[in-house]
Design brief:
This protein has one domain. The relative contact order is 0.18. The two termini are about 20 Å apart. The protein has about 70 residues and is mostly beta strands. The chain contains no helices and four strands. Strands 1-2 form a two-stranded antiparallel ribbon. A two-stranded antiparallel ribbon has the order 3-4.
């Protein structure tokens, strides 16, 4: 977790890998920050929480709280 940069004003998204099949992004958010809704239905989203926790909203108003620990995947 060393070297990860955070900003007070907004989340940071850093590309780790990009190719024709998709992208792998690292998001760094300070507590209380939000990301915009993922709105590309042809591009699935997989999340791995490394530290902290968050509320993740899905289709049809579903939501889940997840955090780092034994089951960090959403």
């Amino acid at each position: 977790m060393e070297g990860i940069k955070f900003k007070d004003s907004h989340p940071i998204a850093r590309p780790i890998h990009v190719d024709k099949n998709g992208r792998l992004l690292q998001f760094a958010l300070k507590p209380g920050r939000e990301l915009k809704e993922h709105s590309s239905p042809s591009s699935p989203v997989y999340l791995l929480v490394l530290k902290g926790e968050g509320v993740f909203k899905g289709g049809s108003d579903s939501q889940a709280t997840a955090g780092a620990g034994p089951n960090p995947y959403i």
